[in-house]
Design a protein that fits this description.
43% helix, 7 helices, alpha/beta, 2 domains, four-stranded parallel sheet
Amino acid sequence: MLANENFPGAAVEGLRRAGHDVGWIRVEAPGSPDEAVLQRSLAERRVLLTFDKDFGELVFARGLNGSAGIILVRVISATPEATARFITQTLASQVKEKFGTLRVYLDEHNDTWSRLVDECEAASCDVCAFCGGQGRLIRDRGWFQTLCDGCAASVIAARRGRQG
């Protein structure tokens, strides 16, 4: 994960204590513009943690790639420690690609979380795993992946080149 500059230090430390690898913009690149923070999260393949709604605008209104993921935290808590507890409790125990689509496993959940996870898993077969564009589930030589046509050509060619 990559915590944006506005993310509380106690929350970053709480996530680290829970075993998460969390970079923090406030320490590693203070004052970075949002575009640079988003680019870094993509380059490092880290999910971005932020309180800043501007990242949604960058991805949805301006079309920048956010395929590493963005978690917009909109929780009101009395302390940063409470924020860390909330985030740690709501993070998935496992998120992985299985048969070309997203699979999310939660340790604790309710009907709302289950419904949200189901919607995300269903949407994952329409989003390219590489560029975040419109994709489709593709099967090649036993491999399943959700890819757009452009990425599919290069991924399949690379895979076939490795397999000989």
